[in-house]
Amino acid sequence: MSILGLIITIAIAFLITVLLSPILIPFLRRLKFGQSIREEGPKSHMKKKGTPTMGGLMIVISIVITSLIMVSKYGNGEIGYKIGLLLFVLLGYALLGFLDDFIKVVLKRNLGLTSKQKMLGQIIIAIIFYIILKNQGFPTYIQIPGTDIQWDLGFGYAFLIVFMLVGASNGVNLTDGLDGLLAGTAAIAFGAFGILAWYGEPQVEVAIFSLAVVGALLGFLVFNAHPAKVFMGDTGSLALGGAVAAVAILTKMEILLVIIGGVFVMETLSVIIQVISFKTTGKRVFKMSPLHHHYELVGWSEWRVVTTFWLIGLVFAALGIYIEVWLR
Description:
The chain has helices at about 5-30, 55-75, 80-105, 115-135, 155-175, 180-200, 205-225, 235-250, 255-260, 260-280, 290-300, 300-325, and strands at about 140-145, 150.
């Protein structure tokens, strides 16, 4: 697959999302699928109340269509198990997120699915993902990035997969709190994995999927950048989180996800630290978690927080590519 093919993949996904947006956004507004705002969140966010959510639908639709078109073109007309698995995870977590969003905005339950219900759904999808991988004879080792050092985890690999899919979907979901924040950081992370999937031992299907995500997110940013006209909701964030973990697994870059997805790790750790600190000492380390809210309350503008996190995401992505390509 040529560089031109990669660019075309991004362009198709971008155009599909941009063309879908003027249709879907008014539709969501007519259905009154507006964002509800947590009362304990930053007060400046109250003005976002009512902004159409579930915009993740246009992202998912764009990714699916683009992936199938480009894989058919560059995969000799065959749809391999890897693209099938990636689309399964994407759609599975998107459905879970859609149910969560639907309960929030239609049934007016601000917390959506209970944590147990959401966790159960995430685990079931992860287990099915592992079973399909196992039946394909997928290797169960993990490898230290930039080296040839490997460890075979055997059955323990199943637990790693569940941990990665559940952890990544929740970590990415936590990052979706400001206009354009997740769309930008996720596009950067998927872009890095797309480059690595294409550059190393070429995995065309994974590269196509990853860059289809990049194109779809860039198209979404046209409408999601501050001030946002639409939010992706859990429909988009859970789907992206599960998908980025699946990409890391299929490219055998499980450990590298911690680096390339560094922004998501930071956001998750900020919540964990905040909860542990408050429960053990009664004090908060951050003014509010996840981390992006802390900087808002410190006095940073929303746009400054978002662009800073984008830059941090770029540094993490560049570091990941450097480790995998130049240190090997």
